[in-house]
Amino acid sequence: MAREVSSEEEAGGGDELRRGPWTVEEDLLLVNYIAAHGEGRWNALARCAGLKRTGKSCRLRWLNYLRPDVRRGNMTAEEQLLILELHGRWGNRWSKIAQHLPGRTDNEIKNYWRTRVQKHAKHLNCDVNSQQFKDLMRYLWMPRLLERIHRSSQSQSHDADDADLSVSAATSCITSDLVVDAHHPPLAMADSNDSAAMWQQHQAPQMSVAGAPPPTTTMAQHVVLPTAAASCHQMQDQFVCARAAETTTCCWSESESLPGLAGLYYDDAAAALPEFDVETMAMWGPEDDPWYTQMLGL
DNA sequence: AAACCGGACAACCGCCGAATA
DNA sequence: CTATTCGGCGGTTGTCCGGTT
After folding, report:
1. A52 Cβ nearer than 7 Å to chain B strand
2. For the segment A196-241, what is each residue's pLDDT rounded down to a tens digit?
3. Which pLDDT score, from 0 to 100, does residue A62 have?
4. Where does it sit, as one GO cellular component term (predicted)?
5. What pLDDT was estimated at residue A210?
6. Residue A115's pLDDT is what?
7. Is the minimum distance from the CB of A107 to strand C below 7 Å?
8. Sequence-ordered alpha helix ranges (H) in A101-216
9. What angle do CA A243, A217, A196 make, to 5 degrees?
């Protein structure tokens, strides 16, 4: 947030390096200099631009705030889902996660995680890195986000022309490369190890409906899903199928703390998490309250 | 109206590896 | 080869602001 420079600050500035919030004048200096000369060599840039800031400070200000492609505002459901998903894979690799959310900075994602996700872990009185909390995210919050994405894309799909635009640019860029196959990992993602691991996590529980023949393993109908919404539809459908099946053989989490949880759907998961308070499970705001109420049959 | 509190986010710090002199 | 500089990253702190008491 830029603010006016106080008279004291101007008087006492001298050759001292400035710290604290950036002013409008500093922002203009930095933006204009980068527009004329490009970014990089930040220490020299800071000197040449006449900024009494460290090169590091200039770089951070540019990357996190001034860059024209920085996205601001609330995280979309798609972005939240991706953050949960990618954090589950990579942990606190914020810059790596940010690479998959165009326009979002590592700092913003880190702040989001700390202020939103960790806050809820604290309210639930469980460690954010615990398997219990991870299961909660995976079986309650992520399906919930999927549901919201699905619902919003359904409602927008009535506007046929705008259907694809309903998905944020952020996640559509990322998941456009997801190649979903009923029995094979995604074929095209950033790196093969990650894609295989992510596929395992996205894979639906293997179902074995009583009396039904086991699913064929020769099915190889690759479906290229062009948008995040499409891949979420697939995942959502898999959740629903899993729930519909009378008996399930789970292949998701092998949680020791919640051994029966893997592969369950909302109500099952809620029943398996009796230690959590209903109110504190409401992660996504007041609009989710009715959903939680319904979920728990209250 | 003022004090207090907590959430959100901007900014800084320390460390590390890569690049360069 | 070594020392220094630079850029990137993750953790932490500081600041602002709105809500509550």
Report:
1. no
2. 333 334 333 332 223 333 332 222 222 222 233 344 344 444 433 3
3. 92
4. nucleus
5. 30
6. 83
7. yes
8. 106-112, 118-123, 131-136, 142-157, 169-175, 192-202
9. 75
Residue A214 C-beta-side C-alpha neighbours within 13 Å:
5
Closest nucleotide over all strands to A46 (CA to C1'): C6
Task: Note the strand B nucleotides within 7 A of protein beta carbons.
Answer: 7-14
In Å, what is the separation between the CA of A231 and the C1' of C19? 40
The pLDDT assigned to A157 comes to 64
CA A57 / C1′ C2 distance in Å: 29
CATH homologous superfamily for the domain A17-66: Homeodomain-like (1.10.10.60)
Residue A283 has pLDDT above 60, yes or no: no
Token pair belonging to A5: 């420079």
pLDDT in tens, A123-153: 777 777 777 778 888 887 888 888 888 887 7
CA–CA separation, A99 and A105 (whole Å) = 8
A107 touches strand B (CB under 7 A): yes
Domain range annotation of chain A: 17-66, 77-295
